[in-house]
Amino acid sequence: MILEQPFFATLALRFKYEADITAKTAWTNGEQLFYNPAYIEELSIDEVKGVLAHEVLHTAMLHHTRRNYRDIAMWNKATDYAINPTLLSSGFILPPNYLVSDDFNNKTAEQIYNLMPPPPPRDSQNSSDDYPGGTGDIKDPPAQANTQAIEAEMKQALAQAIMVAKQQGKLSEDMERLINEVLEPRICWREILTRFLTEITKNDFSWKKPSPRYLYRKLYLPTLETEEPGKVILIVDTSLSIDQKMINQFASEVQDIVNTFNTSLLVIYVDTEVREVQNVECDEPVQLKPQGGGGTDFQPGFFYIEENDLEPKAVVYLTDGECDLFPAPPEYPVLWAQFGTADFQPPFGEVVQVI
């Protein structure tokens, strides 16, 4: 690997290796790589290299620090679907039963996770007994580990590995682009959405109700009032230009909104008119039920909000941006989450490219 795949080899040399006869295959927490000797003995040398590269790419993509609330077995599957095509295109041979699907091409592990069926109820611990990938697992860092320090150290190691591979002329454009997304990530639309929602849920002092703490002293002081987040409305473009693949991606993004902000949503499906309205609760998997398939008009969804006095705190509009029919600017903030590459410049609101 040092001679043929210097990028992967440089990172593989960072692992501390330890035998683990309880493991089905191999696994890593980002610092150590544990392997079942009996499993390794059954593989060819090329397959062993594939397992090493598989575990390396898991850590290079920070899969061990990105799981958050997600089920560990499902997360292993999603991350495998995300990295295995890159390993195969880089010339590695993976052991049998590796996971790959055209349905998940060019998607992040988080997006793939949201497109997968929900896991059965069970304790969500670092156990992947029902994970059938057959290549190697990724697990969380040790409980006492500092996630920010781990990611900073890994990014430094990635930069060094890229330099070594470039000096030998053995770093593909695809791999360099993939790693650069870790080193210099594009702004994720969820980060913008977080800021967007935070700005509309501010706490402030109010004189409406004097603070009871000081009334006995005849001091009338304001109380700290917490403003409720209010209703967030999601308008989904269901015009003919939106295919099922994009609808599935819409669903994954909606799931992330619900999970991240622990909020229910009102979803309005619109092409040239409002076709359907759906409530999405925070405690259930998102199953979008789109109706439409005609042209595109951005006005009907906003008209529906006004006619029904919904008074949202914010509106998020998922669209490919292929339309120029807009209403007058509303009083509430609007975030346009654009899929696709259309030249989209609405007269109001903030636009973010969904990635």
Explain how this protein is built.
- The chain is built from ten helices and twelve strands.
- The chain has 355 residues and is of the alpha/beta class.
- The protein has two domains: 6-185, no CATH class; 232-353, Rossmann fold.
- The chain has a six-stranded mixed β-sheet. Strands 1-3-2-4 form a four-stranded mixed β-sheet.
- Helix 9 links the parallel strand 7 (232-237) and strand 8.
- The longest helix is centred in the middle third of the chain and has 21 residues, at 147-167.
- The two termini are 32 Å apart.
- Mean pLDDT is 82; it is low at 124-129.
Note poorly predicted spans. Answer: 124-129
Largest sheet data: 6 strands, mixed
* Mean pLDDT reading: 82
Apparent shape? globular
Taking the alpha carbons of the first and last residues, their distance comes to 32 Å
Beta percentage is 15-25%
Which structural class is indicated by helix and strand composition?
Answer: alpha/beta
Give the topology string: H per helix, E per strand. Answer: HEEEHHHHEHHHEEEHEEHEEE
The spatial strand order of the largest sheet comes to 9-8-7-10-11-12
Number of domains: 2
Our Rg estimate from Cα atoms comes to 24 Å
What's the helical proportion of residues? 25-40%
Tally of DSSP helical segments? 10
β-strand number: 12
Overview in brief:
This protein has helices at 6-12, 37-41, 45-60, 72-89, 109-115, 147-167, 173-183, 189-199, 244-261, 299-307, and strands spanning 16-19, 26-28, 32-35, 137-138, 203-206, 223-226, 232-237, 265-270, 274-280, 314-319, 334-338, 350-353. The protein is of the alpha/beta class and 355 residues long.
